[in-house]
Amino acid sequence: MANGGGGVWDGNWARLILEIIHEHYKKALDVLPLDHCEKPLLHSGLCIGFADPVTNIIANTLRNADPRKRKRRPPTRDEVLSKIVAGDGTSPPEARTVAERSYYGLRAFLISYFRYLPAWDALRYLYLSRADLLVAVLLIHNHRCCRRPLRIRSHALTSALKSAAYSSAQPNLVMDSFALLPRLHKIHRCRLSAQDIRCLSRLVHKPLKLKKKSDKAAMDLAARRFHQLDMDASIAKVPAGRLTESLRGILLDRIHSRYLKVVPRLPMIDLRVRHHRSLLKAGFCYGPFNSITNIIVNTIWYDTMFPPSESFEVDMICTLQHVESRSLNGLIAFLHASIPDISDHDAMIYLIKSDLNICKVIEMATQEGYTTSVCDDSGYKAAVDASYHPKPEEYLEFVMQVLPQVRSVVRSLLKDPLSSSSVRRLSTLLSHSSLNSFKPAVVLSKDAMKIFSDCKQDFLTQQSFVCRKVKAALQNYEQTTGYCYELCIICGVNDYVGKKRSPGDSRRQFSHANFWASPDNGTSTTLFFAEFSNVEDSEHHQPFCYPVPEVSTQIRCCYCEYLGIRIVHPTEDSWEGAGDYEKIASSEHKLTNQAIISSGKLKDNIMGNFADDYLYLDRAWDIKLIQDMNYAAWLRNLDGNELMRRINPMRP
User: Which residues form the DUF3615 domain (predicted)?
Assistant: First the structure.
């Protein structure tokens, strides 16, 4: 199966779902007059749309039916049904029945609309929802604790419909679905006559007047069908299956949104000069406050207690991926220490339901019968170990002994946004003198110093290039708005977008980036998306940018998701990769849904040291990292045979 199927499991789900879809067609055949509708039914009568499956079949058939055409010998119901149920889900695309095309279209919609949704889970949701598209979407929203209501006319949903159109070989599916939306309530589930077909055909071909109340009516009906299903939609009752694979990505998206909200709250000059370092090294989202406040407090505390020995002002943070992943590891470890019997799967479910609030998780788990302990030092000890905190003992003293004494004052100072004077007051408040100020001298070896210097030079070279491109994109945007913007900071770059520049070159055509900029009209700092060529001076591709909502994660980009880099993309579709999920749905793309999920998961679960750790190494404080770098440099100098002997001492 296309899109990274799951072999025999997908085959079993396909059989079960097709049986359900066949039942929908049997009910539709009881309504449609086959002398008028056989051909449009078999060609375009998909069960995909914004109504229940049977109504969708009828509506899609009528949309393409010609009431003037009538077969001299009407086919029997069994003859038409035999053509619908002939396929078992394994037919090649050109030979698929309308039921099979419905199945593939439904599946393509879900894995295109939702991040981190393997085909196996998409099929399970289709089975639970009885192949009802909007009910399946509501079910996934419910399990993922999505707080925002589904908007039928959203860019994300339209894009997913396009993917469904490709997979179901029905190019007019998007247009038909929206055209039928305001008229679905007029399609009755009773035997239709030729006159009914003529009336309905004229109705569905009238010029469309888009009304928001049509969206609401469709969602109200879907919610009613959702609650009428004979199933328990509680996320706690859903078998873990492969759902656990999706939960980590969902949580990291939510954690990323917190870090994006933190960036404009900190004074920009302080962030660029100092706090970028402490944010990436120790700005974790666990602690006694909400996640955003924890990030800010942990960032300022680390910078206060362990100030940089050398100034290092930046215009760019390449990625927040590492601190976000370590934060999640810390949260999960905290819950394991506080709720001994909890699994990773259930811990992540509770974090989703509580919006990353550990104290709420413990309260919820207690109410549901778990044996729990209060937020104490064992939880924080587990969190600092799991998150590779650079100063674990010092942080434990701070969070357990110092912070409780000043907690209320800290909360009062954290106003939005923070001023430099507020940061200084916080810094004074969070400092404490009981820490051992002795700094043992651990020296970088000559080879390790070379690694450190190379990392820093690579970063500075990339920063210079990206800044030039982003500023050019911002200037192009200014010409369309009339406002001038000042670049604040770049906070995420993926330079691995598009095709390879040449067969022997591993580099890609484009980069995607997010950055914050301040307009001269006095409004608040704005988050932007930018795309630019990876060639220094490209005549064929002018850099461009669009403002984006920092909390939006619905717009999909296969290149950024493949690398686990969380770039917020705009609704405009002029950027590279905007339509690639439609190509993935039709198997025209080299990437598959499963490959994207697997690669992103691999990047999100990497442990140990990263290039960013080397970049922010401080020879005054990072003793363990210096030792690791010295060891890594020593290993690098070993020849292949010696390295293998050290890995496997039994090797001759």
Answer: 470-570
Lowest mean pLDDT among 68-77, 327-336, 383-392: 68-77
Of 409, 430, 451, which marks where a domain is finished?
Answer: 430
pLDDT band (50, 70, 90) for residue 342: very high
Give dist(CA 616, CA 310) in Å, integer: 10
Specify if 438 maps to a domain: no
User: Is the C-alpha dihedral spanning 272, 278, 280, 285 positive or negative?
Assistant: negative
Inside any domain, residue 67? yes
Q: Which of 207, 237, 267 is the last residue of a domain?
A: 237
Q: What share of the chain is helix, strand, coil (3-state, %, to 5)?
A: 55, 5, 35
3-state secondary structure of 396: helix
| Three-state DSSP state, 404 | helix
What are the DSSP E strand ranges found in 120-169?
Answer: none
pTM of the model: 0.89
Q: How far apart are CA 112 and CA 141, in angstroms?
A: 14
In this structure, are 81 and 28 located in the same domain?
Answer: yes
Q: Is 202 inside a domain boundary?
A: yes
Tell me, yes or no, whether 387 and 425 share the same domain.
yes
In this structure, what token pair is assigned to residue 40? 């449009």
3-state class (DSSP) for residue 530: strand
Domain count of the chain? Answer: 3
pLDDT at 242: 57
Residues 133, 208 within the same domain: yes
Confidence of residue 114 (pLDDT cuts 50, 70, 90): very high
Q: Judge whether 190 and 196 are in contact, CB under 8 Å.
A: no
Question: Which pLDDT belongs to residue 11?
Answer: 63
Pair 260, 549: CB distance under 8 Å: no
Could you tell me if 192 and 324 lie in one domain? no
Asked whether residue 210 falls in the same domain as residue 330, the answer is: no
The domain containing residue 550 runs over which residues?
465-604
pLDDT digits 0-9 by tens, 561-588: 999 999 999 988 889 999 898 888 878 8
- How much is the pLDDT for 441? 65
Q: Give dist(CA 614, CA 632) in Å, integer.
A: 11
Question: Residue 2 — φ and ψ, nearest 5°?
Answer: -75, 165
Contact call for residues 545 and 473 (beta carbons, < 8 A):
yes
* Tokens representing residue 216 in the block: 């609401």
Residue 642 within any structural domain of the chain: no
Q: Contact 570/555 with Cβ under 8 angstroms?
A: yes
Q: Are residues 84 and 109 in the same domain?
A: yes
513-530 tens-digit pLDDT:
999 999 887 778 999 999
Name which of 59, 165, 101, 290 is nearest 582 in CA terms: 165
Same domain, 40 and 110: yes
Could you tell me how far CA 519 lies from the centroid of its own chain? 28
Which tens digits make up the pLDDT trace of 12-47?
888 999 999 999 999 999 888 887 788 889 999 999
| pLDDT reported for residue 74 | 79
When pLDDT is cut at 50, 70 and 90, the band that residue 452 belongs to is confident
In 3D space, the residue among 234, 179, 239 whose CA is nearest the CA of residue 211 turns out to be 179
Q: Is there a single domain that holds both residue 205 and residue 263? A: no
560/542 Cα distance (integer angstroms): 20
Among residues 536, 378, 518, 540, the alpha carbon closest in space to that of 467 is found at: 536
